[in-house]
Amino acid sequence: MTGTQWVPLALARDITPGTSAGTVAEGAEIVVWRDTDGRAHVWEDRCPHRGMKMSFGFVRGDHIACLYHGWEFDEGGTCRKIPAHPELEVPGSICVARYGCTETGAMIWAALPLGAEAGELPALPDAVPVRSITIEAGLISVANMLLNEENAVIEGALATLDSAHGPLAIGVQPIRPGAVTLHIATRPGASTETLLAICDWAETLRRTAEKEIAA
Known about the structure:
This protein has two helices and 15 strands. By secondary structure, it is mostly beta strands. It folds into two domains: 5-112, 3-layer Sandwich (Rieske Iron-sulfur Protein), CATH 2.102.10.10; 128-214, Fungal kinase associated-1 domain (TATA-Binding Protein), CATH 3.30.310. The strands form four sheets. Strands 11-15-14-13-12 form a five-stranded antiparallel β-sheet, covered by helices on one side. Strands 5-6-7-8 form a four-stranded antiparallel β-sheet, with no helix packed on it. It is elongated. The protein starts with a strand and ends with a helix. The mean pLDDT is 94. One of its GO terms (molecular function) is oxidoreductase activity. It comes from Paenirhodobacter hankyongi. InterPro entries: ARHD_Rieske_2Fe_2S, Cholesterol_7-desaturase, Rieske_2Fe-2S, Rieske_2Fe-2S_sf.
């Protein structure tokens, strides 16, 4: 994948209000966090002070605080509090770089690369998240395996296909050369048995892809 695009970073249910998680997309370190009102945010995973990962920090309302020195940033990425200098009027130039972010199809998406304007991501149908799985194989290899499935189509970073267990929507997140994460969702109303079967299908896909790379 190259150029400006929307890339899925997580299943929406995995980033609960008041939490954060670090991830990597196309080699870029990224923090995905959700404020306590439920809004998702996607930023560069680096505090501008000493470079500590923001994903190690703490969400406080609509702010996130760095673990190292407690610098606190609002939802716009601007630093609002420096605990060591409580009376300081923090310069507005101190901020964390933000990615364009949207949430649809049971996934959280970011506009890559940093600073890109990828246009509006079309709303995806309602879906039930199943699981995310990382495959130690190249993007082309994984994409070709997905395309071997029934009625498979890949548009941008989204693959849709008909599996033996029902229709799947799969967000494709390139981590780095040789590693890809798939975020898998299916139609609402799927039974527990079906969800478990999809998990087994995903695990088989991972093992097959990695075995082919190792051969």
